[in-house]
């Protein structure tokens, strides 16, 4: 297992004050546990009052900045720990398991999520000096060390939650700076690569989009490779480098997560959800569902309903 856990290092003194203010502002603006959309488009607040089991879900392109507590994201065999010292970047839509490690009612887990704006990334990349470092394909999820400049931009954005009259004008400026700091920070090249319309990262992203659109249909690698303008072998290699899974494994996770949503949110029976997402064999569906979520469909969904009641 590739564990990208952060070392226990104290934050610089100035950053400690910023993090304390940030935690207080987030806590004041969340109504309770869960994911909450703010009045600023693309800016979300997250709170959890207790640790959690690994929960598979689809992470969309975003920057996650923890202000209190600790969490880990699992992608295949890779583990990414993030806390107030490290931010997480997801550059493509990926099925990831998230697990909150450090949280309590007295000191809840608090996190900010900023959606990545591809148009803004493209605009900023045009203004940045060309990156002449050789291409180094890596995961479409990575950790960066939280810098004082990034934390300052995030704090200014959070302050606008209490100044709605100013947010309309100033929030886009803070969002722009956050994108800039991520692009110029550690491993920012992986985010830049998405702006190369004919580059391998963008081709893999197109393949991911196609799988997401047609996840319930039989997957034909040749059709996927054609849409990505790559050979089947090249797509397989690049896809696995970015997502830690094959296209077929990726599709399977999307199917199972959508089936779970249909049962949990829409109240659909397991057999109906099974066929809705493209499974022909209920026994295969149940087996693979249990492997991903830890229990058969009916039992796992009932457990989740009880936990959120």
UniProtKB/TrEMBL annotation:
It comes from the Bacteria. SMART domains: HTH_ARAC. It holds the Pfam family AraC_N. The keyword Transcription applies. Keywords: Transcription, Transcription regulation. Residues 205-303 form the HTH araC/xylS-type domain. PROSITE patterns: HTH_ARAC_FAMILY_2. Coiled coil: none annotated. Transmembrane segments: none annotated. This is AraC family transcriptional regulator CmrA. It comes from Lysobacter panacisoli. The lineage of its organism: Bacteria, Pseudomonadati, Pseudomonadota, Gammaproteobacteria, Lysobacterales.
